[in-house]
Specification:
homodimer; mainly alpha; about 60% helix; DNA-binding; two-stranded antiparallel ribbon; elongated; 6 helices; about 140 residues; 2 strands; 2 domains; Multidrug-efflux Transporter Regulator, Chain: A, Domain 2
DNA sequence: TGTAAGGTCTGTAGGGACTACAGGATCAAG
DNA sequence: CTTGATCCTGTAGTCCCTACAGACCTTACA
């Protein structure tokens, strides 16, 4: 099989399909150096190895957990170098958890406020709405 | 008092100070037509009337309640035209409340996941971290 | 009256995290 | 051999601001 591409190498479209990642996002991650420059076919098409595929999965899972790109960069560089400890990873996770918790409490406050002003409103046909009064007030 | 600017007209900087809004944001809101083009001094400096000041307050309060720019545009156009009912405003608020509630529940799910994987981790000096295992897994 | 500091003007770039498109090359199937 | 899908590159757009540069205007004080 001359010039046959190894079975475990896939092109961008296939990687997108397998990972559920948007096609363009893969190239974007390469641009910001989150993903490495992959191998290429002779004609220039990208070829992703199993390792590349694992790395993208790592990134996508981290994003699902709400880590920012910079946080993922940290996670990856720790894991890449192999020089990480449980403690470091745990710290990063706790930091992130704290910001998630903060966001939740902010949104809950918002929710309470919205419920309150919403309850004041009869939702009828009258043109004087207490919600508007709240927004308009001096 | 020839050419004296009315006391209730203020320039951009003063409006920013009074409202707590960022100076540039005011111009931005003008650009996206959330704020009207204000009067100008002869030399071209913006002059905001009381009405303008109220409108900006309305916008800022709506933003504090998490309404998007488009939602604020809707609120404003209803209030501007005077042709709104309690019911319409209430509906918009409920819609927004729903999206806030959704965000909270999404974040809570995230929080639970992060707590779980974080708890599995001893946070010690070991190089094998269960959090990383989670991210790395096939 | 001169001048220096500070406010305002315009247009434009940057951020974060993508997403989408145009215009061309390449590939796979019939 | 042709068609249609996929791939390439570069670039622009999204959302909601924020910040800067370089010029002009205003105000306070000497």
């Amino acid at each position: 099989m001359p010039f046959t591409v190894a079975r475990d190498h896939v092109k961008r479209g296939e990687l997108a399909r397998r990972s559920g990642c948007n096609l363009e996002t893969i190239r974007y991650y390469e641009g910001i150096k989150l993903m490495p420059e992959p191998a290429r076919t002779e004609s220039g098409h990208r070829l992703y190895s199993i390792v590349d595929q694992r790395r993208l999965r790592f990134i996508l899972r981290s994003r699902e957990l709400g880590f920012s790109i910079d946080e993922i960069r940290s996670l990856l560089s720790m894991v890449d170098s192999g020089a990480y400890t449980c403690g470091e990873i745990h710290a990063l996770t706790q930091e992130h958890l704290k910001s998630v918790t903060k966001k939740i409490s902010d949104l809950k406050k918002l929710q309470r406020t919205l419920k309150t002003i919403s309850n004041d409103c009869g939702a009828g046909d009258e043109p004087d709405c207490p919600i508007v009064e709240t927004l308009i007030a001096d």
